[in-house]
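Design a sequence for this backbone.
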């Protein structure tokens, strides 16, 4: 059992110090912060696509320091992850945080000859790590979502992550305490025993401006926060940054969080300042902490933490998309799920004729022709449409099938060029009463060697291709 799992199972509030992995400078690691036990957590390619591997960097820290290794699925597939698991095991690293990750800085769309960048979904990584056994598995949640569909999509995916085997949850960085409270309520309401940690960071003016300028995926910084930080800088009140961070940590503790994932607080002098304010406020109860937090952020309306452009008007779901769902669902049932179709298909595809390269090519072309116009099929070879309400996962730039990444902004995709397909799926699921499909069906990863083959053939050729799922 790892120390981290001990802390969480014994409700010992802990602090995970996050370090990025590009720099060679190592900061001394404290054994505790204001009496809370400390772990080091090593991020995966946050600074650049070419950051050093967290497993390598972990060797630079003393053995007795408890570590949490991040693994991000960007630009990777399931084989890469299996290799990583073997390495982690041989190094004795059992604490993992499995993420899909934000977009690769050098993301390729695959439209100019270069292969399309693939992303290993966190859910598939959790399933694989669970299958291997011996890991303490963390997953992420972004609770800072402000349309019904993007928020619902996050929580539906969290249900799946927990079903896949997640042991604990770490939230995205954010300052909206009501969203953090909602995340805690979700665990309680669903009687999940998983523990949750909140990501916090001392928010300086420079960091807020950096996040806004770089449009860091999934982080919400309201203009009000920037104007408070600007004014504080002018007045020389920058210590308020650490006061608020201390308060946020204590508020999270009051709300039932099991710890915090602390970003950008590496230097000893920053940690000392934070520690000083935690000690100063340690005995305040929740209302007193909240009141001081609101005073320091100069809140007036209570809306100072949510995006100013939020519009809660429900969008009507287009009738043509409902018809399309019904039509494709009927075709799937009739041609691929019924007993008769399965028996006929198996007999037909048993013939060696279908394995001939020319015939295989023909089927692949026929499938692409039939499905490309309807759903923008890309011949992934393992059709998942029945589990994604006939919205093709390949139309998500990251190719995610199980649910959204954390990067949406008011339903817009992290890539900025479309509505997130998972928000669309949520709205469709609610309209056709199929939300359980998005909550329960764990969709396996597509192995690379299967891409570019016919899912029709794979579906019926059950002896060799058991993974195939739909038409
Ligand atoms: S469509 Fe949604 S899940 Fe896919 S990259 Fe865009 S925001 Fe992320």
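Sequence:
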């Amino acid at each position: 059992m790892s120390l981290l799992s001990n802390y969480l199972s014994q409700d010992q509030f802990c602090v995970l110090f996050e370090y990025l992995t590009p720099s060679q400078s190592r900061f001394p690691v404290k054994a505790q912060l204001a009496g809370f036990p400390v772990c080091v957590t090593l991020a995966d390619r946050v600074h650049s696509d070419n950051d050093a591997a967290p497993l390598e960097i972990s060797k630079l820290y003393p053995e007795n320091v408890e570590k949490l290794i991040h693994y991000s699925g960007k630009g990777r597939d399931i084989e890469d992850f299996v290799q990583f698991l073997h390495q982690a095991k041989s190094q004795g690293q059992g604490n993992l945080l499995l993420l899909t990750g934000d977009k690769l800085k050098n993301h390729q769309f695959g439209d100019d000859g270069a292969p399309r960048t693939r992303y290993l979904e966190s859910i598939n990584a959790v399933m694989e790590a669970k299958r291997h056994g011996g890991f303490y598995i963390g997953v992420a949640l972004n609770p800072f979502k402000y349309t019904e569909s993007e928020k619902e999509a996050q929580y539906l995916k969290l249900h799946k992550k927990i079903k896949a085997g997640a042991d604990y949850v770490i939230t995205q960085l954010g300052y909206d305490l009501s969203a953090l409270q909602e995340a805690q309520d979700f665990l309680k309401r669903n009687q999940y025993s998983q523990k949750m940690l909140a990501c916090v960071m001392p928010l300086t003016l420079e960091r807020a401006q950096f996040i806004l300028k770089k449009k860091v995926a999934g982080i919400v910084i309201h203009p009000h926060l920037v104007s408070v930080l600007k004014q504080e800088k002018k007045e020389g009140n920058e210590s308020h940054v650490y006061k608020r961070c201390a308060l946020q940590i204590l508020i999270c503790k009051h709300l039932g969080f099991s710890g915090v994932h602390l970003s950008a607080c590496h230097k000893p002098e920053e940690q000392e300042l934070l520690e000083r304010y935690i000690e100063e406020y340690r005995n305040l109860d929740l209302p007193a902490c909240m009141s001081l937090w609101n005073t320091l952020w100069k809140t007036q309306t209570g809306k100072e933490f949510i995006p100013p452009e939020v519009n809660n008007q429900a969008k009507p779901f287009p009738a043509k998309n409902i018809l399309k769902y019904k039509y494709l669902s009927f075709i799937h049932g009739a041609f691929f799920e019924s007993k008769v179709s399965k028996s006929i298909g198996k007999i037909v595809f048993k013939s060696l004729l279908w394995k001939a390269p020319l015939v295989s090519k023909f089927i692949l072309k026929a499938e692409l022709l039939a499905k490309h116009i309807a759903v923008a099929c890309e011949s992934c070879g393992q059709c998942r449409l029945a589990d994604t309400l006939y919205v093709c996962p390949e139309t998500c730039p990251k190719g995610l099938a199980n649910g959204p990444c954390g990067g949406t902004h008011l339903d817009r995709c992290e890539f900025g060029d479309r509505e997130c397909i998972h928000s669309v799926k949520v709205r469709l699921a609610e309209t056709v009463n199929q939300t359980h499909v998005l909550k329960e069906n764990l969709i396996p990863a597509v192995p690379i060697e299967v891409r570019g083959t016919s899912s029709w053939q794979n579906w019926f050729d059950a002896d060799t291709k058991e993974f195939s799922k739909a038409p």
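The first strand starts at residue 14 and ends at 19.
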